[in-house]
Amino acid sequence: MDLVGTLEGLSQGRMALGEIIDGLWKRIEEVEPRIKAFLSLASPEDLKRAGEGLADKPLRGVPIAVKDNISTVGFTTTCGSRFLERFRPVFDATAVERLRAAGAQVQGKTNMDEFAMGSSTEHSAFGPTRNPHDPERVPGGSSGGSAAAVAAGEALAALGSDTGGSVRQPAALCGVVGLRPTYGLVSRWGLVAFASSLDQIGPITRSVRDCALILSIIAGHDPRDSTSLPAEPRDYTAELEGGIADWVFGLPREYASPELGAEALSLIDRWTSLIEELGGRVVEISLPLTEYALPAYYLIASAEASANLARFDGVRYTASVPGETVREMIAASRTFGFGREVKRRIMLGTFALSAGYYDRYYGKAQRVRTLIAREFADAFREVDIIFGPTSPTPAFRLGEKADPISMYLSDIFTLPSALAGVPAISIPGGRIGGLPFGLQLIAPRLQEGKLLRAAYALEQALP
Prior knowledge:
By secondary structure, this protein is an alpha/beta fold. The chain has one domain (1-312, 339-463): Amidase signature (AS) domain (Amidase signature (AS) enzymes). Helix content is 38%, strand content 13%. It has an 11-stranded mixed beta sheet, sandwiched between helices. The radius of gyration is 21 Å and the shape is globular.
């Protein structure tokens, strides 16, 4: 049952909160030793007691999982890193604050690639999470723990964060729904920064209507976040109905490359036919700058990461390794605290920002980003929605992508929209080799209502 169905059951008296919590924890006991989606969990008895006072609120005390780079009172927030292994925040992130105000409880903190840098959740300092559909495969990343928990039935819904695809790609690989909102629609206050101009919190759920419900609660202006947009709260669940008749859907030729393989191209043909059956019209478009999104993204994100992660110095927070001098102490602490992938990106970003190279690399990447945003804006003058695969492949095996470039290419279809700051959603689009394959829909800035309506129409029509 999805979150909305559970809330309906609670409001009608067909089920009790204690039964729901017991069911979730029974499932956790069954699958968590194999999946390893959570890094920490609340006590089910504590959730039941606290839930008694939340029955009149919209979310009625239901537990929701939270990615471990989102600040939460009462839990450690580790970012999947040894640096923050024992760090306990003293405040909730705005998104968590708003969920609690609506009557939700934090179920636990989910595993992730360290500091959100990865596409497989293999780069967590606490071990990898596994895909519920095949434990020998990855769940995607960096919000792999959140996606796996929802897909495995361990959680009704979860929060993740998406910098270049970290909500949508794991949602696609685990066969659930993942939304990246317009940059600035959901507050970043309390989200541990990776790349500040790209990071965005988004929901991972079992259905599109669940996604709309969570977004309705967490979206809106926050004066504590300087990048927060002056957007008024909206009920996105009220905008799901109506269908997509007469809408124009653009399929970029760059997103339907023959390199995807016959099964993926067959699914794209199926999506095209389905859109037309629902009254929409599909046209081919071109987004030629797609191939430049990957280098632009990794320069911008790594540069911002090198600046944001400079605060982890062994003096503040938790990880500290002694040294004879301050310099030696900082070096030893960072050597211990940061994993291999984080060190790789810090070095790349520091180089890109160094004297003599700033304009050659970082400055040029920002100019490419502007061109990509302009390319999307031009495309949306002709189409209502852009669609295509979320990821080039279904879930790959653990350890299969040891080469960093092959791993980075997992996000090739999610990076362009992240750079452009436009909203995008991944919904289950079918299966390849028995594994989920995601359908991604992209809409213009602040058109989450239109995006969710299109996703809902297709979700209802897909088997």
